[in-house]
């Protein structure tokens, strides 16, 4: 099936898609700040430049778009044009996501992912979602303390070749 708009219009539309400071990120950031959590944005020193980094809680939060990260939900649909290009690109995105999560978890960071569909499902009043994210940020994953006072993570979930405990990896989806 041919594209419904001309190439110049499609280029303009695609160039308007932002990689940071999206509306969803602003909702999450504002909600976390209102709950007393302080954070840094897009820290370049960490793998994947997480959208929100909470150093005090040793946690990071990503806000992932369902299309760009190939989420298994109704918001994700394969494009009808240039299918090979998109399959390759989105597969690389997923592979990079798994690598980044494994690297962060290997360094002792807890990783939270708020999916676009999860925020949309919350509607105009995402209070419960934001309370859940803030609660997850504040929990102490285990009673055991590792080097430098960091908690030692229990094993549970498999991401790539890395085993990650549920307390260290959390997703909010529809």
Report on the structure:
The protein is α/β, with parallel strands linked by helices. It has helices at 7-15, 23-34, 83-106, 116-122, 127-138, and strands at residues 40-41, 52-54, 59-64, 110-115, 157-159, 162-164, 169-172. The radius of gyration is 17 Å and the shape is globular. It starts with 6 loop residues before the first helix and ends with a strand.
Short description:
With 174 residues, the protein is of the alpha/beta class.
Give the radius of gyration: 17 Å
Largest sheet: 5 strands, mixed
Shape: globular
Poorly predicted spans: 143-157, 159-163
Could you tell me how far the N terminus lies from the C terminus, measured between alpha carbons in angstroms?
Answer: 30 Å
Secondary-structure map with pairings?
Layout: H1 7-15, H2 23-34, E1 40-41, E2 52-54, E3 59-64, H3 83-106, E4 110-115, H4 116-122, H5 127-138, E5 157-159, E6 162-164, E7 169-172
What key phrases describe this protein's structure?
single chain; 174 residues; alpha/beta; five-stranded mixed sheet; two-stranded antiparallel ribbon; 5 helices
């Amino acid at each position: 099936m041919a594209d419904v708009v001309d190439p110049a219009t499609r280029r303009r539309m695609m160039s308007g898609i932002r990689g940071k400071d999206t509306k969803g990120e602003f909702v999450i950031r504002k909600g976390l700040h209102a709950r007393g959590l302080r954070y840094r944005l897009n820290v370049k020193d960490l793998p994947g430049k997480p959208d929100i980094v909470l150093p005090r809680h040793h946690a990071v939060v990503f806000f992932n778009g369902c299309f760009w990260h190939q989420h298994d939900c109704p918001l994700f649909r394969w494009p009808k044009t240039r299918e090979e290009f998109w399959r390759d690109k989105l597969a690389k995105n997923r592979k990079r996501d798994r690598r980044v999560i494994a690297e962060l978890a290997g360094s002792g960071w807890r990783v939270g992912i708020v999916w676009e569909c999860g925020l949309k499902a919350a509607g105009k009043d995402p209070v419960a979602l934001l309370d859940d994210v803030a609660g997850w940020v504040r929990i102490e994953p285990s009673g055991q303390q590792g080097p430098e006072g960091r908690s030692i993570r229990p094993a549970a979930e498999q991401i790539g070749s890395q085993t990650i405990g549920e307390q260290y990896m959390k997703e909010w989806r529809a």
